[in-house]
Amino acid sequence: MTADNQDREGGAVSRLWGAVVDGVAAVGTLMIGVLMVIICADIVARNAMGASLPLVSEAGALLVVTLVALQLGATIRARRLARAEFLLLALQARSPRAAALLRAAFNALGAVILGIIAFATLRVFEKDWNAAEFIGVPGIATLPTWPFRLLVLAGFTIAAIEFAFATLSALRRAVRGQA
């Protein structure tokens, strides 16, 4: 169990939030399976019929962005986000409080950046919803884009909130003088 998770342990709201974050990540995992099926079906179609299936590249692009957004919150919550820890580890050995403050700054910056991305995604979602935006070729195959935009918005919002929680946790550890 990580230090962030130890700080959050205990409350029903925290457990419910964790279930939401994990559930959203599970939807992202299901999307990986859907993407694999779509790609395999396209390969079979290309070999059997000499033609690609409609919407494969467009749907694939939307699915990749969506599944990454949906899984980002759980990655942050589990402290599995890739980062160079060499500076933090050296700082932690000398000054646990300074290391915790640096972690808090990193997490706060992540919350702000992902909040900005979520806000920008809200505008894209509103545009796609109001204009009934779609991908594909009318008369052959089309797919509305707004459900994907909504999931991306949810994913980045959850990730921003997770970074905010991690910021608070790191600040609590800094006050206690822990890394």
TrEMBL record:
Segments crossing the lipid bilayer: 16-39, 59-79, 100-122, 150-171
Keyword Transport assigned: yes
GO cellular component, as recorded: plasma membrane
Tripartite ATP-independent periplasmic transporters DctQ component domain location: 35-170
Pfam families: DctQ (PF04290)
UniProt keywords, alphabetically: Cell inner membrane, Cell membrane, Membrane, Transmembrane, Transmembrane helix, Transport
Coiled coil: none
Coarse class of the protein's main subcellular location: membrane
GO molecular function, one term: transmembrane transporter activity
Recorded topology in the membrane: Multi-pass membrane protein
InterPro entries named in the record: DctQ
Subcellular localization, as worded in the UniProt entry: Cell inner membrane; Cell membrane
Keyword Membrane: yes
Stated role: Part of the tripartite ATP-independent periplasmic (TRAP) transport system.
Family as reported in the entry's similarity comment: Belongs to the TRAP transporter small permease family.
Subunit and interaction comment: The complex comprises the extracytoplasmic solute receptor protein and the two transmembrane proteins.
Protein's name according to its UniProt entry: TRAP transporter small permease protein
Organism of provenance: Thetidibacter halocola
